[in-house]
Amino acid sequence: MLDTTFIMDLASKAPTPGGGGASAYVGALSSALGSMVGNLTVGKKRYEAVEADTYIVLEKLADERTRLIGLVDEDARAFAPLAAAYGMPKATPEELAEKDRVMQQALVGACEVPLDIMRSCAHVIDLCEFLAYNGSRMVLSDVGVAVAFGKAALLGASLNVFINAKDIADRGRAKAYIEEADRLVDGSGALADKLYAYVLDEIR
Q1: Domains of the chain: which residue ranges?
Q2: Does domain 17-203 have CATH number 3.20.20.70?
Q3: Read out DSSP for 87-119?
Q4: pLDDT tens string 5-36
């Protein structure tokens, strides 16, 4: 039976898990679907020529899946100090200064974790490119689902980068976060669209 704990926690009014953790979870699902395609490709005579490469892709997908599952919890841990900072007192100049110091530190983690999620999702999408063109044609539609999930996770995590980067006082650091998020969305997001369109054209 499906363990719905994460989904029920996500639906609650608790501050975590939230959009970042959900994005990591969806990214892990993207990797899992890609792995399913790979596992249904190896061992088949028709795909002998790509079997060795498929095993390499499977190993890399497993690594990213493990990383993304870990990032579900890491996102919650990164958000906790930020949530605490919002609740700090600010009645005096000293309290206000301390609140700002803690918040600025927390905002860095709140950007870096979703960027890690984005990097992993981008890699999953890249790996799915091989499966789209070389994997079992019987499960080609699942490659389409995998890249759709990968892009959704990529975009979801990017929103956490953007909302937190806008409040970082160090604008150079904030700019670097935003520019990397934009590059990942533009590059891997475009690849996901290309692969999805290819799958759709092949199966309709």
Answers
A1: 17-203
A2: no
A3: TS--SSHHHHHHHHHHHHHHHHHHHHHHHHHHH
A4: 999 999 999 888 999 999 999 999 999 999 99
